[in-house]
Amino acid sequence: MITLAERINGQFLDVKKAIKERDPSVIHELAKKQTEAGATYLDINVGTAAADQEDAMKWLVESTQEAVKTPIAIDSQKLSVIKAGLEVIKNDVMINSAQGDPEVLDTYMQLAKQHNAALICLTMNKDGIPQNVDTRIEIAAEIAGKAMEHDVDMDKIYIDPILFTITVDQKQPAYMLEVFNQIKLISDPSPHITVGLSNLAQGTKEKSLICRTFLTMAIAAGMDTALMDVLDTELMDAAICAEMLLNKQIYSDSFLKAARP
Amino acid sequence: MEIANVVEKCSGIVKEVTIGATKDEGGTRGKVVTIGGANCIPFMDFDGSPGHKPAIAMDVYDAPPEEWPEPLLKHYADVIDNPANWAKKCAEFGADLICLKLDGIHPDKGNRSADETVSTVKSILEAVDIPLIIWGCENDERDNEIMPKVSEAAKGERCLLGGATQENYKTITAVCLADGHNLITQAPVDINIGKQINILVTDLGFPTDRIVMFQTTGALGYGIEYCYSIHERGRMAALSGDHQMATPVICDVGHEAWRAKEAKASDSEAPQWGSFADRGVMWEAITATTLIQSGVDIIRMNHPEAVSIVKKHIENLT
C-alpha cells in the first residue's frame, strides 16, 4: 500500500521544538527512520505552533530533503503554506490537501498539474464534513470530474473521505467501508483512496490495535493509501498480510520479509 | 467522439538477464543473449515494451538419451555420443543458446565423473560460440559435487546454471555468485515455492538480475494448463511490481513434449493419430507456441523443425 508517514508534524513536541529552534537534526532523523520503515511519502505538517507557517514549511521541506530523496506530502489547509513548500521542493511531491468545492478544486488541480504533484482531496466543502455516505460520494464524484476536466491523471488523485475519531461517532468506520467501495466505482481507472488512520484512535487506550484492525478492513474495502504511523511495525505487517490475503502479493513462506522495506 | 485511451500501463518490469560473455567481457562467446525487459503482457506492444524476444535453447545431453523416438533421434544419430558436435549441429539449426543437460552424472544414468563433465563443458565452449546453459541432474549429492567444478571451468563465460531448489540452493548459488554465472531457480509447478526460492537465493546476496525462474514444465495434454497459469500469474505479479517475481522464465518444452505418448507412438501403434513423423514435431511446436503466450523468455527445445516453426511464430508475433 501507499503510506504517508505522519511524524514530521509540528503537533509532536519534538518537531515543534525543532521548528522553533531551527534544529534540523530531529527532522533528518525522522526522515531517515520513516524512510527506512517503508514510507512512500513523508507527510510534512507545520502544525499550529509556528508564527510564520510559510517559512516553517519551507524549512521543514528543505531539512527533509537534506536527509532523504523520499517523496514529500506537503500537508496544510492553507494554500499559501502549500505554495511555500512547493517553492523549495526537489523530491517528488504530493499536495495534502484540497477541499471539494468546485472553485477550490480548480485552483488545486492547476497547482498539481503545474508541479506534477499528486493531490489529496477531502470529501468536504464549504458546508462542512458530511456525516453520511451519499454526500461523501457526491463530492468524490465532483473531485473525479474536476480531475478529468483539468486532464490530471487519475493515478495522481487521492480521495480522503475523512475518518472521524472513534470516540466522536462510532457509526463512521462502517460508513467509511461503504464509501471506499463506492469511490472505486466512480471512474475507471478509479482514484486512490486515503485516510488519516491515526485520527481514528485519538484519545483511546488501544491506538495500535484499533488502527491495525481498521486498516485491514479498509484495505479489503479498497482503501490503498493512509497517513499513518509507519514506525509501528505491527501496523505495517498487517498491511502486508492484508494485501497477501487479497491476492495482491503472491504468498511465499517469507512473504512478510520479502515485502518489508 | 473522442476514443478513450485503453492502454494498460504496468508498474513493474521484468529484469533483463544477459547470458554469455564476449572476449571483451572476459568470456569467449561470439554472441550473447539478453532476455527479459518486458513491462507489458506478452506481445502486447501497444501497452508497453514487450522486452526481448523469447530465445530458443536447444538441448545437448552429456550421455545419449534413452528412449528418444526415431523422428527425433534421426537428426542427432551421428552426434548422440559427442556433445560438442551435437552442439555444433544445434547452432546450425538456429539455436540461440545450448542447454547442456547433465543427466549422465546421475548415479542411475552413468554416474559420470567431474573430470569427464568438465571436459564435455570445455569441448562445447570450444565447438560453438553461442551462450551456454548448464543444468545438473537433479540428484542433490551429485549436483553439489559436480556443478562447482563445472562452474569454475566455465568461469567468465556468464553461463546460466541450474538449478537451485528450495531444498538445495546454497552450493549452486554460491558458485554462480563466485564465478559470475546466472542462476536458474526451480519450483515444482508451485508459484509460492517459486517466489520463496527467489527470496532464499537473494537473501544469500545473489542479484535478482541474474536469476531465471523455472516452473517444471507440463507439455500439451500433460499439465500445460497448470504451467501456463503459473507463468501467467507470475508475470502479472511481476508487472504489478512484485520484485521477487520480476525475473525471466525458462521452460523445458522439448524434453516434456517428446515424453508424451502422442509423440512416441509409432504409426502401427496409433494409426488413427496421424503421421508419426509429424506428430512429435507438432506436439513440441504447439507446447512451445502456447507457453510463449504465458510469458516465457527461454524455451528449451529438441527437434529442428519444431524450432524452425516456433522461431517463425515468434517473428510473426513481434
Description:
The complex is a heterodimer of chains A (261) and B (318). Chain A is α/β, with parallel strands linked by helices and 261 residues long. Chain A is 47% helix and 16% strand. Chain A is built from 10 helices and 8 strands. Chain A has an 8-stranded parallel β-barrel with strand order 1-2-3-4-5-6-7-8, surrounded by 5 helices. In chain A, strand 7, helix 8 and strand 8 form a beta-alpha-beta unit. In chain A, helix 3 packs parallel to helix 4. Chain A is globular and about 45 Å long. The mean pLDDT of chain A is 95. Chain B has one domain: TIM Barrel, CATH 3.20.20. Chain B is 39% helix and 14% strand. In chain B, helix 4 links the parallel strand 5 and strand 6. The mean pLDDT of chain B is 96. The interface between A and B is medium-sized, with 10 and 16 residues.
Q: Total strand count of chain B, please?
A: 10
**Strands ordered across the widest β-sheet of chain B:** 3-4-5-6-7-8-9-10
Greatest contact pair? A-B, 10 and 16 residues
Shape of chain A: globular
CATH superfamily of chain B: Dihydropteroate synthase-like
Order of helices and strands of chain A: EHHEHEHEHEHEHEHEHH
**Structural class, from helix and strand content of chain B?**
alpha/beta
